[in-house]
Every structure is written in C-alpha cells, then in structure tokens.
Specification:
The complex is a heterodimer. Chain A is of the alpha+beta class. Chain A has one domain: Beta-Lactamase, CATH 3.30.450. In chain A, about 45% of the residues lie in helices and about 25% in strands. Chain A has helices at about 30-45, 80-100, 105-110, 110-120, 130-145, and strands at about 5-15, 20-25, 55, 60-65, 70-75, 120-125, 125. In chain A, the strands form 2 sheets. Chain A has a 5-stranded antiparallel β-sheet with strand order 2-1-5-4-3, sandwiched between helices. In chain A, a hairpin with a 2-residue loop joins strand 3 (about 55) and strand 4 (about 60-65). The longest helix of chain A is centred in the middle third of the chain and has 18 residues, at about 80-100. Chain B is α+β, with helices and mostly antiparallel strands. Helix content of chain B is about 55%, strand content about 10%. Chain B is extended. Chain B starts with 6 loop residues before the first helix and ends in a 9-residue tail after the last strand. The chains are: A alpha+beta, B alpha+beta. The interface between A and B is large, with 50 and 63 residues. Chain A: Belongs to the adaptor complexes small subunit family. Chain A: One of its GO terms (biological process) is habituation. Chain A: It is found in: Cell membrane; Membrane, Coated pit.
C-alpha cells in the first residue's frame, strides 16, 4: 500500500540557505539537516537541460528554480510529477501576489508569513487549496488580525 | 543584557555578519537574551522572541529551549501569540518530545473555538505533527468538524482526518460515513479533501474499497462536470478546471476500478472523454492526461481505451517539454514490460520516438544496463519497425558496457531461442553470440538465473537463424559471421563450423556465398591468421575514424554496410575546399577534425569503404542540412583576398574556415596565417592546405580554425597574414569582430 504524499517542502537558495522547511514526516534534527544538504547537492547541479524531477533516496523530488531559489517538494515515486510541478507554480504565484512581486528577501524577513501561506495551500502532506483567490482572501483576513 | 531587538532588526544584524564565526557570535548573544526573556513571567514581546528563535532555528542552530514557550503561547488568548506558538510547535515539537502531549488540551479547546482562524491553526498543527495518542484523543472532534457547516473548516478537517487515518488506520471507520457525504459538496476544496480521505481509507482497508465502489457513478459525474464545465476562474489553471482535483479523482478511480470489472465499466466512457477532451498544450493538461493514462492501464479497460492511452504516451514522446518526454518514457517502459499487445499496434510511433530520443534516454538511463534492457525490450516487442541504425547503435552500446557482456549475451541468447521473428533482435543477438560466445558457454552470470548452454545449443540457434525462411539476408549474414567467430571461441565443434561454412560456399545468395568462401579460405589457406582475425572487437568509438585500409579486422564491420545509407549526412559544401578531405569521412564534428589533423594534408588517408562505415555510424549524431554557409570577405588587398566561413556553430564553439585566393598575375608564396583571440576564447588552428596560392584564381589555400568560448559576445579575432608576392615579403593584419552565422543554425 503506497502512502502517497508529500514528505517535505523545502525552499533553498543556491548557496544552500534554507528559506523554508516544512516536514510532513518524522525526522530527527540531524536527519533533517542531512536531508537539506543532500537535496541541495542534488538539485543545484542540474541545469535547464535536465527535467524538473530527480530521484532521491527512495522518493523523488519535484523542483523548480525561480531566480535564486529552489522550490523542492519531495514526494512518493508513484506520485504524478506534473501535478506537483503545477502545485509548486501555484504556490509561487500566490507568494508573488501576496508579497507584491516577491523576492528572496521578502521570504527571509517574513518567514512566519510564508509558513502561513504553505499551511493554507498544503496540509497533512497533500495539496489542500488550489484556488489562488481563495488563499489570498484568507491571507489578507489573517493579516488584519495581527 | 542587551535589550531585545525586534525580529526584523535581528535578521538584518545576522545577515550583516561577514563570517560564520561572527554570525555564531550574534546568534549566541541573541539566544541568551531570548532565554532570559522566556524566564520572565510576563512580557509583551513573547511572540517576537519566539519568532526570533524560530528564525535562528531555521538557520540550523539548536532551539529546543523554546519548546515550553510554544506550549505557553498556544494557551494564550491572543491570536498573534497563538499563531507563533503553533508555528513553533510545528517546527520544534514532534512526536518524540514530551512537550507535545501538553498541547493536546489546548488543541482540543481551540478546535471548538469561536474563531475559525483559531480552529484552523489547531487543525493545521494536529495534521502536521499530531502523534498517535493525540490523534486518538482528538479524532472525535475532527469527526464532528467534518460535519460542521463551514466549508473552510471542513477542508482542513478532511485532511486532518487523513493524517489521523495514516497514524491509526483503525480509526478509519469513524470517518467513513462523513467521507461519503462530503462527496456531495460543491466546494472544490472540500471535495479535494474528501477524495484524498476516501483514497486513504480505501488503500488502508479493502472493506472500504467495496463500500466506496458504490460511489463510482458519483465520482464520474463530478469529473464530467469538471471536464465539460465552462471557464471557472477560481480553480482554473491554463484552461483546465481544477486539474489538481481531476488528478486526485482519477487516482481514486484507479484504485476503485482495479481488478473490478463492474467499476471499470462504469468509468470507461468518462476516461475516454477526459482523454480526448483535455488540452495538453500546458503542463496542467498533461498532468491530467498522464493520470488518465495511468488509470486506463491499471483498471480493466477495454482494448480501444488502452490503445488510446498508448497513443497519448506516444504523443508525449514528441512533446517539446523535456519533463513530459521523461515521464512518458518511464511509463512506456513499464507498459512494454506488462502489456505487449497494446504497445504492438503502435510500434512505429513509439520506436520512432525512442530512436529520436536516444540521446535523452541515454542521459536519463540510470545505468547502462537499464539502457540496454530498454532497447532490448523495444526490439523484442517492436523490432520489426526499428530503424536499421538501432542495430549498430545497440551494438556499440554493448561493446562499451564491458562488465555487462556476460549478462547481455545471456539475455540475447534467451531471446533468440524463444523467437527469431524480430530481425533487429536477431541481428544484435547473433552479433553478440559471435563476439561473446565464450561468456555464454561458461554458463554463469551474476544477474541472470544460470542456464547451461552447450556449444551445440549455440550452434543450433545460429544455424536456425541461417536456415529459417523468416530471416532476412542481413540476418543470415550476421548469423554466418557469428558462427565463424565462434570457431575461435569454442573447442569441440570446430568441424561442425567448418562444414557449415563450406556448405554455404555454394549458396545462391551472393552475399552469403562470398562470406562463406572467404571464411573457408580462413580455415584453409589462412588458418594461421584465423585467431587474430576473429578476435574480440575493440570498443567501438562513435567518433572514431579507426578504419584503416586493408585491415582484416575491419571485415566484421561489413555488417554495418548493410543498413540503408544514411539520412542527412553532414557533408560540407564542395565549394568549401577546406573540408574536401574531411568531407570523405562525412563528419564535421570537431573531435573528428582533431584526429585528422595530421592527415588533412595527406589525401590518401581516407578511402570510400571507411567513409561508408563512418556515414552509418555517424548519422546517429544527427543530420545537418548540407546547405552552403555564407562566406564573408574579411581582407582584400592587391589581389589577395581572404574569405571567412563559419560552420558547425554551437553555443560554445565555432569552426571557421579561411579561404585565401589570389587574383594577381603571379603566385603568392609562403602564405601564412596567424591568429589571436581574447583570453576568454580558445583557439586551435589546423594545418593549412598549403602555402602557395596560385595566380589568377587558379587555386586557393584554406585553413580551418576551431574556436571555443563561453560567451559568444566576446568572440573576436585578429589575423595576421604573411606572404611573399612578386618578390616582396608582406605582412598585413585584419581584425574580425563579427562572424557570420551558418545558414542552417
């Protein structure tokens, strides 16, 4: 029985600094650190000639590079690559709308807000909300509560 | 103790640190301050401090002293504090920490909070890091929320339920009725969650499968609505209505339809509709189509539908998007292994695509063995339509994978004895058996179950090919040569080989007869040379111009001459004299130019048979149209003119050809070119065709220059010409700033 779901979501820059790490599976701290380093090593050597999918341990990583940031989702080998690729893009478009032409610094200085966006769109290792309008509406409402 | 700075300020300070050591110092100071703050009973900046700690944690520093603070903040009544508390819980707490149990009560309370935002925080945290005990405690709450009126909460509750079911499968029963009723929701988010929940329930428990099969019509209806409905702005991605939901439903249908005829029937129409109506020009559509194909292949679908699915995969192979080609290749590989019939009908397309994509397959092939296996599978199922170049292609691959020789020959032998219809397979198999027969006879091979093969078996197999009316003349040629090669690799049955060879000396087929007669001669008059002639072939280098005249070891290469002459051989325009020598080898790839450097002034190094061989091997590298490249005159003085022509342009290299001609009354002698390029460019000058330029345009001197660079914009060259004209020595310089691009690039 395959437990198909997202294992983790990572946003890293080219230098390997983590901008977001959302884990949907149980890992120790040092395991997490190791995973982060491995993902970085695997993803940064690839260029435009490669696909956006790479095998990783016994999972696979769907990733996409936006400017200096790599958005990586680690999923099960039986998952639909293209759907998750669209999922990443959906997520980035929301970030873009929310932060008004988002750049890496936005994600750094507002990291806890980024987590909120992630939690609106992904939950329990699955894609949760796909309507950008709905997510943005929700985010703005939350912002007013602060 | 330094006063606590707000989060943004701290981030700025940390980023300002110039070294790792400096950063560590800043962080240590900040952590000390935060720790002190935590110890204070009451202060307004608690959430800021925890936020700072979380940032530090993200950078990789330890932060476990913040765990209790998370618990405290979660219990707070202020939203801003709760929110950071929950975030901290998700980041710092996990099942193993005792502190996680402490928040169970808070979560329970918050699940019934009046504000849906608070409820959502609690749901989120539970779904993210809820341990088994927590889930058990809180499952009833979640179940209640699944029936709540607010769709925002229902969405989250559904996925929370998914998490609970994953942690404690027995609790799945609790959610089954609600999951069912959620399917009638209109809200996409809720539907999405419900479908995922049902998927999870079905995967965990076969009883649920039976129950949810009854929902197939409902699911089919939902899909139909999605596919046929008009533009819905909220969930639209590139013209597809909520592709994520479509993909999930398709996946659920796959699980429900597997091994069940009734369910599969019910979804046949829908799958056909989705397959034909979905626009695959963007990734979203392709994602849906891909999932559809997977579903079709997995359930008990009718053959027409399967054909449709394979068609779609075939189309994907031609797609511009590398990602799509990749997934279709991997799927096809799986399908070829399990479902030959569906694939058979589309041999042509698939094999064509595979042939084109050979370079990509190579790049993606996790190993040479995978690559060989894949091509073998294709040959076995669709060998009849394989292009002839695949045979030498595969052979070259096999020779290169020396550790796999034993494995490969065993596999091919087995394929050969089971079926000799597919000619390409037969040819490759014969070639390998001839080459590696000794490995085959040894019997053991690590990666394959051992099978004892005797010399007689092998010879029987080859003779069957030789005698069968199904074999083409080419294949029979392969078989005969293989039999001959075995004469040096086996010990007992050499006489049998001798008799076979002599029989075919009077064969009607001229090609076979010629071979047999020659081999006969090898047995008789040239027996002393036989071992040397028939020894193992060296690894065939794709770019090699290793064929030399009259070497008997070239003989086995005759097989390569059989295939049809090449498409699109890269030949330089005859007007361009520089490559007239290289032209015979039919290759203008730079590596080849390198090896021919020494021979470019000696025209006798090439011969037509080897060029033929080269053509066959090299057109694999892709045909380039032989259209003339424009040439530009870069220098003209006193009757001497120098023309420049660019060929072979890639992103990082260019081959430039200089042609010097002389329109004066007397010859120009001692003609010599020197070139200089900027530092970022590398230059390699080939030997010129000569140093005498005949008068009145009777001849030219040509010289090729190879340039490689990282940035084409920097490409410049300065050329100095030295020569003697009418008794005087001259020297001229010309700067070339722009290079004409070839006509066909």
């Amino acid at each position: 029985m395959t437990c198909t779901k997202i294992r983790f979501i990572l946003i890293q820059n080219r230098a390997g600094k983590t901008r977001l790490a959302k884990w949907y599976m149980q890992f120790d701290d040092d395991e997490k650190q190791k995973l982060i380093e491995e993902v970085h090593a695997v993803v940064t050597v690839r260029d435009a000639k490669h696909t956006n999918f790479v095998e990783f341990r016994n999972f696979k990583i769907i990733y996409r590079r936006y400017a200096g940031l790599y958005f990586c989702i680690c999923v099960d080998v039986t998952d639909n690559n293209l759907a998750y690729l669209e999922g990443i893009h959906n997520f980035v478009e929301v970030l873009n709308e929310y932060f008004h032409n988002v750049c890496e610094l936005d994600l750094v200085f507002n990291f806890y807000k980024v987590y909120t966006v992630v939690d609106e769109m992904f939950l329990a290792g699955e894609i949760r909300e796909t309507s950008q309008t709905k997510v943005l509406k929700q985010l703005l409402m939350l912002q007013s509560l602060e | 103790m330094s006063p606590s700075v707000c989060l943004q300020e701290m981030i700025r300070v940390i980023r300002g640190a110039r070294t790792q050591g400096e950063e560590r110092g800043v962080i240590q100071r900040e952590c000390a301050a935060i720790r002190a703050q935590f110890r204070q009973a009451d202060n307004g900046g608690r959430s800021h401090n925890l936020a700072k700690l979380l940032y530090v944690h993200m950078l990789g520093y330890p932060a476990h002293f913040g765990q209790m603070e998370c618990v405290r903040l979660i219990a707070s009544s202020k939203y801003s504090e709760k929110r950071i508390g929950y975030l901290g819980a998700m980041m710092l707490l996990d099942e193993k920490q005792d502190a996680s149990l402490l928040i169970t009560n808070s979560i329970k309370n918050d699940l019934s909070h009046s504000s849906q935002h608070v409820q959502s925080l609690a749901l989120c945290t539970l779904a993210c890091m809820g341990s088994a005990e927590m889930c058990r405690d809180l499952a009833p709450e979640i179940e209640r929320l699944l029936k709540a009126s607010n769709s925002y909460i229902k969405k989250k509750a559904a996925l929370c339920a998914v998490h609970i079911v994953r942690k404690i499968p027995e609790l799945g029963e609790m959610f089954t009725p609600s999951a069912h009723s959620l399917l009638s929701e209109k809200n996409h988010g809720v539907l999405h969650g419900a479908v995922i929940l049902i998927t999870e329930l079905c995967e965990r428990n076969p009883d649920n499968l039976k129950q949810f099969r009854k929902s197939v019509p409902e699911l089919v209806q939902i899909m139909k609505n999605l596919v046929t409905s008009g533009y819905s702005p909220e969930h639209n991605v590139a013209g597809i209505s909520d592709p994520f939901l479509q993909v999930r439903i398709l996946r659920l249908l796959r699980i429900l339809g597997r091994n069940n005829d009734a369910a599969s029937d019910a979804m046949n129409d829908l799958l056909a509709q989705v397959a034909t109506n979905t626009d695959s020009s963007k990734t979203a559509g392709s994602a849906v189509l891909y999932e559809t194909v997977l579903t079709i292949m997995d359930i008990r679908s009718e053959s027409g539908l399967r054909v449709l699915a394979v068609n779609i995969l075939g189309r994907f192979l031609l797609n511009n998007d590398r990602n799509i080609r990749y997934i279709s290749m991997t799927s096809l590989q799986k399908i070829v292994q399990t479902d030959h019939t569906a694939v058979q009908r589309h041999r042509g397309t698939i094999v064509d695509c595979l042939k084109d994509q050979d370079a990509s397959v190579k790049r993606y092939a996790p190993s040479q063995r995978w690559h060989i296996d894949t091509i073998l599978h294709v040959l076995v199922t669709a060998g009849g339509d394989v292009r002839d170049e695949t045979v030498p292609n595969l052979i070259q691959l096999i020779t290169a994978a020396s550790e796999l020789h034993c494995y490969t020959v065993h596999k091919l032998y087995r394929a050969l004895i089971s079926d000799i219809v597919q000619q390409s397979l037969v040819q490759v198999a014969c070639w390998c058996i001839g080459e590696y027969g000794d490995l085959l006879l040894k019997g053991e091979c690590e990666e394959i179950t051992p099978m004892q093969v005797t010399e007689d078996d092998v010879l029987d197999a080859l003779e069957t090919v030789l005698q069968s009316h199904m074999s083409t003349p080419t294949s029979r040629g392969f078989a005969l040569t293989a039999i001959m090669k075995l004469s040096t690799r086996i010990t007992n049955n050499v006489d049998r080989i001798r008799s076979v060879v002599s029989i075919y000396g009077s064969c009607i087929d001229v090609e076979l007869q010629q071979r047999a007669v020659e081999y006969n001669a090898l047995f008789k008059k040239y027996d002393h040379m036989r071992a040397a002639v028939l020894e193992r072939m060296p690894v065939i280098d794709r770019n090699s111009s290793g064929q030399t005249n009259g070497d008997p070891s070239v003989e086995p290469m005759k097989e390569f001459n059989q295939p049809k002459p090449v498409q699109g051989v890269l030949i330089q325009e005859p007007a361009n004299q520089v490559c007239d020598l290289l032209d015979l080898l039919g290759d203008s790839n730079p590596p080849l130019l390198v090896t021919n450097d020494h021979t470019s002034t000696a025209p006798n190094s090439t011969n037509s048979t080897s060029s033929n061989v080269q053509d066959n091997l090299l057109d694999l590298l892709g045909g380039l149209e032989p259209t003339p490249a424009p040439s530009v005159t870069v220098f003209e003085k006193g009757g001497l003119s120098l023309k420049l022509q660019c060929d072979q342009q890639t992103e990082t290299s260019t081959t430039v050809t200089f042609t010097a001609s002389n329109s004066t009354q007397s010859d120009i002698t001692g003609f010599n070119l020197q070139a200089a390029v900027p530092k970022s460019v590398q230059l390699q000058m080939k030997a010129p065709s000569g140093d005498l330029i005949p008068a009145q345009g009777c001849g030219t001197v040509t010289q090729t220059v190879l340039l490689s660079y990282t940035n084409k914009a920097n490409l410049k060259m300065r050329v100095r010409l030295s020569y003697s004209s009418q008794g005087t020595a001259c020297q001229d310089m010309v700067q070339i700033d722009s290079f004409p691009s070839p006509a066909w690039s």
